[in-house]
Amino acid sequence: MVSVEELRRGVVDKLAARAPETSICPSDVARELGDENWRELMPAVRAAAAHLAEDGTVVATQGDDVVDAETAKGPIRIRRGPSW
């Protein structure tokens, strides 16, 4: 079982490893931390991103729109937030 803290750290670590203007897909984190059942981690990764967005560490987007990572319908991207 992957802890909430591991999921948050996974999101931050993935973003830190990329250029500042780029984004990640939640599946990038789920695939790294999960096994062949990584898809089961997707809701938890989105919840971790939503928590990180509360303090501005990250933002979740759909196209050019900022969305709530946990409640948005469809695919999202995660990028560095204003408090990165």
UniProtKB/TrEMBL annotation:
Domain of life: Bacteria
Pfam families found in the cross-reference section: DUF3253 (PF11625)
Protein name: DUF3253 domain-containing protein
InterPro entries with a match to the protein in the record: DUF3253, WH-like_DNA-bd_sf, WH_DNA-bd_sf
